[in-house]
Amino acid sequence: MTALFGPSGNSQSFYDEGHKSTTEAPEWLKKRGLDAFEYSFGRGVRIREGTAREIGNAFVKEGITLSVHAPYYINLASTDEKKKKNTIRYFTESVTAAHWMGATRVIFHPGAVGKEERETAFGRALEFFSEIIHEVESLGYEEVRLCPETLGKINQLGSVEEVLRLCSLNRNVIPAIDFGHLHARTVGGIKSKDDYKRILDMMEEGLADERARKFHVHFSHIEYTKQGEKKHCDFKDEGFGPDFEPFAELMVERNLGPTIICESPTMMAEDARTMKDIYLKIKKAV
């Protein structure tokens, strides 16, 4: 298997070179040897069908694999009926836009624990997500997969275990493993190859199918506090982790083919290319 690499959004250098439209991004990315891109609907799905299809066609033309990120406002554990209705809408709008764009993955944040016991909140999230899966399936866009993401703050739903339990509800739900977030929520817990191994082993045991090999990845260096994530960092910012190379070694050793999206704040394309170079160097040496 071969991993795919690309950015979430456009690097500052994209705009510094005079580019303005995301329709220009695919050619720009291809020239840099990248093959994936994540389009964010973080603040809401505000896109017309015609625009979505134009963007999607530009990525198809250059052979760039496209994913989208659903609005950040999703909270599967909410008890507020209005917020629950909005959450369903965020999912259906994101999946519909993904279909228009030719994207096959919709990444989303599961939500927050709140003031309850964690297991109580997560139990409600599981039940609600099961309803959402049925709502999404009723749209008929079978090619689009939902991808719950591991989150960076301790009070958020989104540990590896929780994401895998969400994935267990339906074989079409794919884990989105954000290693920066996991590093932050464990207060610097990803330090070695063994730390990555434990995460990958959990996925293999919890899923036991192709989803444990062709999963979704977010990767960036990250600053954290005792509460977890503080902010994402570019690779050039010194003193932050986690280190990508041990994970790249495991990808080659285990023949994994994830889509790896870089979430550096300003140099996401450049850092994605750095990761791809590390991966290809290791792969060539085997």
Automatic annotation (TrEMBL):
GO terms for biological process: base-excision repair. It holds the Pfam family AP_endonuc_2. Signal peptide: none annotated. GO terms for molecular function: DNA binding; DNA-(apurinic or apyrimidinic site) endonuclease activity; phosphoric diester hydrolase activity; zinc ion binding. Residues 27-271 form the Xylose isomerase-like TIM barrel domain. It comes from the Bacteria. InterPro entries: AP_endonuc_2, Xyl_isomerase-like_sf, Xyl_isomerase-like_TIM-brl. This is TIM barrel protein. It comes from Calorimonas adulescens.
